[in-house]
Amino acid sequence: MTERLVVIGGDAAGMSAASQARRLKGPGELEIVAFERGHFSSYSACGIPYWVGGDVAARDELIARSPEEHRARDIDLRMRTEVTALDLDRQRVRSRDLESGAEEWTGFDKLVIATGARPLRPPLPGIDAPGVHGVQNLDDGQALLDSLGLARGRRAVVVGAGYIGVEMAEALLGRGFEVTVLNRGEQPMATLDPDMGRLVHAAMDGLGITTVGSSPVTKILTGADGRVRVVATEAGEYPADVVVLGTGVVPETSLARAAGLPLGVYDGLLTDLSMRVRGHGNIWAGGDCVEVLDLVSGRERHVPLGTHANKHGQVIGSNVGGGYATFPGVVGTAVSKVCDLEIARTGLREKDARAVGLQYVTVTIESTSRAGYYPGAALMTVKMLAERRTGRLLGVQIVGREGAAKRVDIAAVALTAGMTVEAMTALDLGYAPPFSPVWDPVLVAARKAVAAVRAAG
Amino acid sequence: MTERLVVIGGDAAGMSAASQARRLKGPGELEIVAFERGHFSSYSACGIPYWVGGDVAARDELIARSPEEHRARDIDLRMRTEVTALDLDRQRVRSRDLESGAEEWTGFDKLVIATGARPLRPPLPGIDAPGVHGVQNLDDGQALLDSLGLARGRRAVVVGAGYIGVEMAEALLGRGFEVTVLNRGEQPMATLDPDMGRLVHAAMDGLGITTVGSSPVTKILTGADGRVRVVATEAGEYPADVVVLGTGVVPETSLARAAGLPLGVYDGLLTDLSMRVRGHGNIWAGGDCVEVLDLVSGRERHVPLGTHANKHGQVIGSNVGGGYATFPGVVGTAVSKVCDLEIARTGLREKDARAVGLQYVTVTIESTSRAGYYPGAALMTVKMLAERRTGRLLGVQIVGREGAAKRVDIAAVALTAGMTVEAMTALDLGYAPPFSPVWDPVLVAARKAVAAVRAAG
């Protein structure tokens, strides 16, 4: 008997799950129907800033697998088709063809929910004016690119100084705009501790990007032509020919909520380790619509990142296809850049540690990416948190130039393994003058952390 | 009562030990006398190829701390003074001032042996001819640089295709020489498996470096002026205006041997985890003169690397100074480059695994350093070994361009933690298009290794 798998969402998590399930089960065993309300499947949303900035020439380079390619693998991917209801009792989904308006029910034996995230668009006056753009999907990216061409002048305002905000600042700078980033918090990159965020702030200043902290937007004013003209904040008014919103996302779980599926404190779906929705034997969920276990804090978090979505899809597809795989959780690794400034973090920030009752020490060191005497050696600052008494590594943040970001992987693996900072000082990391000082910056931080743990008693 | 610490060897391990001991104990508690037979203290031997090649402008940039700086920290560092005998019964060392010839005995309460390694200089006819150079220390580097100026033509031959050999090939290329590397083995970089060495070979060809495998040198012929002219091998004769020997090193342990201290199969001193020489309560040893425990194979190895020497010194100094530290061992990480080709390895090669009775699977994948669509994405090849049945990671080798080498650190930490390749597939590594594909190349290899372990049964 052929079972039917229905997948809601045609991007990373959903289509990875479909593809992996198809690898394990042929069309005679498993029929796969996938619904995607947008125009594109399996694309890299993370690549949008680089397309907007001109580093990536064409939109289609961001598409990993087109609908036709999925269909050639016997996945019935229905584009521009939105799932509007979930009927768990009768195991079916209701969908609407967004072109024709036609609706229908499709039954399922197994269901994958990969509905992603939706942007947090604050309900401000003027937020929907022409010239104000989100950068959530490829259509958004194209609209923004078109808008850049229409802009009267070259003043761009980015709202929000998180990953998307700083990446879009680079992109707009690359397009010749004068860029102002307006930030609700005091320092950019709230995913870092404020002392590390301050380094990002200073570096952005150096790149010619104006970053204004503590400036929540109150309204967006338009000109006579209806296009955006000024962004007003509690801190002042900023002229703008184009505005990009990098104000975060929340899990897109309205269907799941209506169907009574379990959601966490961040409104993300809750799953078990096999990515099965808790309490539901034949429903899986993955990607930006779920919460994941943070292995360091022991709490669920919402971490919308393509790399997790792909892993979730892989795990779901294996389990749906009769194999076995789990997603144990995350340690909170993220890397980013603004021009030549690299920004990385993993594990807990100070406030995360406090929130779960952990006592900790912190150390901050400066070192270089290569031997000090080797050409191109670039400064980096490494901050490390270790648990008081046990010395267990809790988190690392790195801000620097070339070679800074991916060094955080050392700490990501050490966190996963539950290493102490003392154990880290003995790590046998790659050393040669073009690649590292004789003590890698992460080891320098670990050595100082050992001393701090001892001193804290 | 003031104790006296005697340190034999004024480079990385010895002077790190002395400096760390001094941090913990002032001159009123601990007198420190250090002997160095050369002209330089605490220098980066690993940096010599880059000085010879011109990336590093001046010799003194390679000196981390001069004799005067050590002396300013109350370390009685005696340069150009060779220790000629070790009298363990009477706890004293005999030294000779190489300038004046004066000899004397110096008593010790604690002793650190950091005598380093000496080059393996095969006893071939002509090996001592002018124009034939080792690159072991700064004097060698200066002699080679002088010799490059004196060379009649621009043909350089490098004997040996290990780390030093390939790095010197780059350096000589940088100085405008036509470079031939003569290698005893079939492929360069015997620290890699031959299939990965083949990639290095091909890349060196592409860089214009001729690499001749299976060509052990039989003699070196000189011209009428006495300078080197031709290198003869079993495979043929190669004209040479200058010759650089990269034929490896062995532990310099003649003093230790004469004193009856325990040596291993590679002639390196054997220590316990605190770097104390086995069976000797007041003698420590570290750096290139010791053998270290390979944590993956469980065997002792000789791994002459500055990064280990510095760690040894740190551990020894802590213990000598009344603190406590250990050096648990290595996993065999090494990184190198030839021009823009990056080469990295950690853990066991296939023959290492076989030698200790491990059954394993191997996988090799190609991926890129950045998202495929991001400018500068460079190909890399990752080979991974995992134990049969358990799936425990045994080793990783990487050959590629920018961003390849330091990725090996992910595997180095995973090896230290004893991770399986299955656990590795869930690692939360830094992802953003400028830094990695959505699946980091190491994760792509791990996924393939999981399948290979399963298939091997």
UniProtKB/TrEMBL annotation, chains A, B:
SUPFAM superfamilies: FAD/NAD(P)-binding domain, FAD/NAD-linked reductases, dimerisation (C-terminal) domain. Gene3D superfamilies: FAD/NAD(P)-binding domain (3.50.50.60). One of its GO terms (molecular function) is oxidoreductase activity. It comes from Streptomyces showdoensis. Keywords: FAD, Flavoprotein, Oxidoreductase, Redox-active center. Residues 4-296 form the FAD/NAD(P)-binding domain. This is Flavoprotein oxidoreductase. It comes from the Bacteria. Belongs to the class-III pyridine nucleotide-disulfide oxidoreductase family. Residues 336-438 form the Pyridine nucleotide-disulphide oxidoreductase dimerisation domain. InterPro entries: FAD-bd_OxRdtase (IPR050260), FAD/NAD-bd_sf (IPR036188), FAD/NAD-binding_dom (IPR023753), FAD/NAD-linked_Rdtase_dimer_sf (IPR016156), Pyr_nucl-diS_OxRdtase_dimer (IPR004099).
